[in-house]
Amino acid sequence: MESPSDLVRSSTFIFKGTVLELGASSVPFVPPNEKLITVRLDQSLRTDPMLGDLRGKTITVAVDSAEKFSVSQQLVFFGNSWVHGRGIAVREVAHLDAGQTDRVAAAVAELPLRHMLDRVQDAEAVVEATINKIDPPGFTLDQHDGLWATAHLRVEATLKGETPKPAVFCFATGEWPPWNRAPRFEKGQAGVFLLHAPPLDTVKEGGTLAPGRLVTVDTADFQDESQAGRIKKFLSALK
């Protein structure tokens, strides 16, 4: 069995709940069968905030076999979203006894830190710096382009890799997926920048991302200066 931390990282819908019915479904267009159960959601541990407050809602869970469960059983369910609309259904990854709820909640609380450290580990360069200037994106006919702006840096310290030459990085400004969730920057912004090689499909002829540029594409790719000590300690442990 995977640890709670591993299960948390591989699941997008985590909750403590009480089993209501076996072989049943609460979603109109998902017919009942022997691999479904319905569960009352008692405590959300990791769910999409867009779904609102789900306490007391009935969730349909796709499982290996409904016979492994019993009515009124309380468990922590790890799952991934399956159906949202006229009911909620998820596909189970695993489940644990409800007594593990606090351990699971603690693992969920650690997710932002774990994600940030993953981004540090994957980065080509990590620098403490201040943005001196930003060049707006150039012209392109590609309607799916990220519209990459260029940030010029004054680098105070290089924590990983080599300082880019020139000391610049690019960030997307497009207002369409997936770029609408990418971090945005402004002149004078200071902190720790986690610079990555761009996704392969973003460097293309006629696009606004110049070959060879490093980029930031994840919200974790910029960290407040208060995180510098933690990042240094993490990088030191990797050596």
Short characterization:
The protein has 239 residues and is α+β, with helices and mostly antiparallel strands. Helices cover 16% and strands 36% of the residues.
Major β-sheet strand ordering: 10-8-7-6-9-11
User: Which class of the largest domain in CATH terms?
Assistant: Mainly Beta
Q: Look up the CATH topology of the largest domain.
A: OB fold (Dihydrolipoamide Acetyltransferase, E2P)
- Quaternary class: single chain
Description:
With 239 residues, this protein is of the alpha+beta class. It has 2 domains: 106 residues, OB fold (Dihydrolipoamide Acetyltransferase, E2P) (Beta Barrel); 122 residues, OB fold (Dihydrolipoamide Acetyltransferase, E2P), CATH 2.40.50. 16% of the residues lie in helices and 36% in strands. The chain has 4 helices and 11 strands. The two termini are 30 Å apart.
SSE diagram, text form:
Elements: H1 4-9, E1 13-22, E2 36-46, E3 58-62, E4 74-84, E5 88-97, H2 101-109, H3 111-122, E6 125-135, E7 148-160, E8 168-172, E9 190-195, E10 215-216, E11 222-223, H4 228-238
Parallel strand pairs: 3-5, 8-10
Antiparallel strand pairs: 1-2, 1-4, 2-3, 4-5, 6-7, 6-9, 7-8, 9-11
Question: What characteristics describe this protein?
Answer:
single chain, 239 residues, alpha+beta, OB fold (Dihydrolipoamide Acetyltransferase, E2P), 2 domains, 6-stranded mixed β-sheet, 5-stranded mixed barrel, 16% helix, elongated
